[in-house]
């Protein structure tokens, strides 16, 4: 299967803010059109609004754990695509692959066979994080600390180690403190396995923020309540600054009543954390990892890529607003 030619966003990049406003005003409202016409108009709106925009960079590095105890909700997909979208918009982003399956490493085009220095060496042997970080070949400013199959045994090996819950936190802190001036990492995303073992606990202790992707199905709501209880336990005993900052609805199908009900319920209970953006089911998103790419480079004009681009814009803007409110 050949990847489609990389689409360009020259029109939106070269258009002034006034020109973008005119283009947006010229789009059909879609109120009386077919669902397909509405979807096309919505994608055009996202492309005009978000493509080519340089996002505000945080004043200090934001460390986010991407977590959900339920599998198959789009954790890894969300991690790599939001990270890639932020990097394309001018940020410097590090993805730490803490899932033994290594899917985030695959999607970012990072080699992660058994002999490669990986996050396992950081956790178990105390190897500096800087020795395992690799640049993503497709996106400037995007880096990855890969996972190898060795990580599958790390849960058992960590049990007997001193300060087993804080080993990742210490490694991330040392890495960020050792950065060269002008090359500061803006975002660190930690991709977790779908369980609450020592790997996920290390991720929660290392982060300040929790980023939760939620599949728009009923079981996702049950898993969310248990996840929040576990986050509260970590906050009370290991990491007082931990909080849920971002929730993204994934695999959204607007044609079904259930998806809309789940979305409404999540937004009702978490109005400040839930993004306006929702990621639809998309073949392009599923195809991209087989080419060792994120959907942001595989097909940047697809509905899935544009939705992740919108989510990245929202994450950056919310962070900038939060910094202004605190100052």
Concise account of the structure shown:
The chain is an alpha/beta fold. Helices cover 46% and strands 14% of the residues.
Key features of this structure:
eight-stranded mixed beta sheet; 46% helix; 327 residues; 14 helices; alpha/beta; 8 strands
Number of strands: 8
Question: Termini separation (Å)?
Answer: 51 Å
What portion of residues is helical?
40-55%
Which geometry do the CA atoms define? globular
* Strand residues, percent: 5-15%
Radius of gyration: 19 Å
Order of helices and strands: HHHEHEHHEEHHEHEHEHEHHH
- How many DSSP H or I helices? 14
Query: What strand order characterises the main sheet?
Result: 3-4-2-5-1-6-7-8
For the residues shown, what is the average pLDDT?
87
- The structure class reads alpha/beta
Main sheet?
A: 8 strands, mixed
Low-confidence sequence ranges:
5-14
């Amino acid at each position: 299967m050949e990847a489609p030619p990389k689409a360009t966003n020259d029109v939106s990049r070269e258009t002034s803010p006034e020109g973008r406003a005119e283009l947006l005003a010229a789009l059909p409202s879609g109120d009386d059109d077919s669902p397909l016409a509405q979807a096309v108009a919505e994608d055009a709106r996202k492309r005009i609004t978000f493509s080519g925009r340089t996002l505000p960079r945080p004043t200090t590095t934001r460390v986010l754990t991407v977590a959900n105890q339920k599998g198959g909700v789009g954790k890894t997909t969300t991690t790599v695509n939001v990270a890639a979208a932020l990097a394309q918009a001018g940020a410097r982003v590090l993805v730490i692959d803490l899932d033994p399956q290594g899917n985030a490493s695959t999607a970012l085009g990072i080699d992660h066979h058994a002999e490669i220095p990986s996050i396992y060496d950081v956790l178990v042997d105390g190897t500096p994080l800087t020795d395992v970080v690799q640049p993503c070949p497709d996106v400037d400013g995007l880096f990855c600390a890969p996972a190898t199959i060795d990580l599958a045994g790390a849960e058992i090996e960590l049990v007997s180690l001193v300060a087993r819950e804080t080993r990742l936190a210490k490694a991330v802190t040392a890495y960020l403190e050792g950065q060269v001036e002008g090359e500061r990492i803006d975002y660190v995303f930690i991709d977790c396995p779908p369980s609450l073992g020592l790997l996920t606990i290390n991720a929660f202790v290392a982060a300040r923020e929790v980023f939760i992707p939620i599949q728009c199905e009923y079981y996702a709501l049950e898993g969310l309540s248990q996840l929040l209880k576990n986050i509260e336990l970590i906050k009370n005993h290991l990491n007082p600054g931990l909080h849920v900052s971002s929730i993204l609805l994934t695999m959204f199908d607007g044609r079904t009543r259930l998806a809309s009900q789940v979305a409404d319920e999540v937004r009702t209970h978490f109005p400040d954390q839930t993004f306006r953006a929702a990621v639809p089911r998309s073949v392009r998103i599923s195809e991209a990892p087989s080419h060792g790419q994120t959907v942001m480079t595989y097909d940047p004009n697809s509905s899935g890529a544009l939705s992740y681009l919108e989510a990245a814009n929202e994450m950056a803007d919310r962070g900038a607003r939060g910094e202004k409110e605190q100052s």
